[in-house]
Design goal:
Helix 1 crosses helix 4. The protein has one domain: AttH-like fold. The protein starts with a helix and ends with a strand. It is globular and about 55 Å long. It has 380 residues and is mainly beta. A hairpin with a 6-residue loop joins strand 21 and strand 22. It contains four helices and 27 strands.
Length: 380
């Protein structure tokens, strides 16, 4: 039944892959053994805009001094070279938890890049990198519910893990068929506003940028994700971890950064995640985390050992996103049966309890309170 649809879907999203095993993936962790991380220049912030299947995004996380939090995201998607789409999304969690969050996601038209591919443009939308490579300006008027005029500026270097940040996929890793890369601006200052139907919201505060490239079908690259973004007055802690499907040996790939103004404390393959308590989501059977422990273990440039931990309850989730909510029901059923895909994202930002970063650098012990945003994503 629906064989024609299954075949069409397989051509686009791909069916379940064979078991290639862990030898068919080269984690960025391998490069990070010799080169823990590399600081980037303006030239390294170009959009790849691949002609083959990919999902590329720039995600700006804003932690305002007034307690508001926002995510601004440009997503560039290419489906097997047949169709390219771009989307601009705005999500705002208000300081007043009694107010519902604001969510706007709009398809973009007339998309283009600057000549050097460091800036992105579309009708009523622009994400521009400054000449010195230190500042992004994000402007959008494509949805009157959230008119964006925000600027973020580096206060710590931009980095990738290892030499180039890439994890490679393929049975011939000298000629890989897929890749994954993340570049981070771990510690930034933000200024500007997002004008909503209730009026402007000031986003003066701190910020973080992730430029991500999944150079293959996303559900083939990863079955699960964990993400942490923590900002305190003095420190930033970033964690990005994904687990491959069994086709690549259920390999865990992790990248982390600890930074302060003007300096990367440590970065690279230094992180681990434990969901210390979970509960079964009655709607989809995923193990929704309720408590977690996030750790960073590395060394400074001069060899001092570095350890950091954030742990505790995640409190009530901010949101649970059914990634396929807009997909027609029969297509969703086919996707689930064909490739075992039922992606959900759980988002948290604890406020009732104190979120502390406990940091040890050499013999120095530090504990600092801050704001944390974290996601747990289950795909297949």
């Amino acid at each position: 039944m629906f064989n024609w649809a299954k075949q069409t879907l397989a051509n686009v999203v791909g069916t379940e892959e064979p078991i290639y095993g862990p030898s068919a993936i080269k984690s960025v962790a391998q490069d990070a053994k010799d080169t823990p991380y590399t600081e980037l220049t303006r030239n390294d912030m170009k959009w790849a805009a691949l002609d083959s299947t990919c999902v590329e995004s720039q995600s700006f996380y804003l932690t305002a001094d007034n307690g508001n939090f926002a995510l601004l995201q440009v997503i560039y998607s290419n489906v097997v070279g047949i169709r390219t789409t771009c989307q601009f999304s705005v999500k705002i969690f208000r300081a007043d938890p009694s107010k519902p969050h604001i969510w706007c996601s709009t398809p973009l038209n007339d998309t283009d890049f600057s000549e050097d591919k460091t800036s992105f443009y579309a009708a009523d939308c622009a994400v521009e990198l400054s000449e010195d490579g230190k500042t992004y300006t994000i402007k959008s008027m494509n949805d009157q519910r959230a008119i964006v005029n925000v600027k973020i500026t580096q206060t710590a270097p931009c980095i990738v893990a290892g030499k180039d940040g890439k994890t490679l996929f393929g049975t011939d890793l000298s000629n890989p068929w897929g890749s994954m890369r993340h570049a981070f601006w771990p510690r930034c200052v933000a200024e500007g506003t997002i004008v909503t139907e209730e009026g402007p919201i000031d986003f003066k505060g701190k910020a973080f940028l992730s430029h991500a490239l999944q150079g293959m079908k996303p559900h083939h690259a990863a079955s699960r994700w964990n993400f942490v973004y923590f900002q305190s007055p003095s420190y930033s802690a970033i964690l990005m971890e994904f687990t491959t499907p069994p086709s690549y040996g259920s390999t865990v790939v992790s990248v982390g950064v600890l930074a302060k103004d003007g300096e990367i404390i440590t970065a690279g393959d230094i992180t681990s995640v434990q969901h210390t308590k979970t509960k079964k989501d009655s709607e989809n059977d995923w193990p929704e985390p309720t408590e977690a422990k996030f750790t960073w273990t590395g060394a400074t440039k001069d060899g001092k050992p570095v350890e950091a931990v954030i742990e505790g309850p995640l409190e009530d989730k901010l949101d649970r996103i059914d990634v396929m909510a807009e997909v027609p029901g029969f297509v969703k059923t086919i996707v689930a049966s064909a490739v075992g895909t039922k992606p959900y994202i759980y988002q948290y930002s604890p406020r009732k309890t104190t979120v502390n970063l406990k940091l040890k650098i050499g013999d120095q012990e530090i504990s600092e309170e801050g704001r944390m945003f974290t996601e747990a994503t289950f795909i297949s």
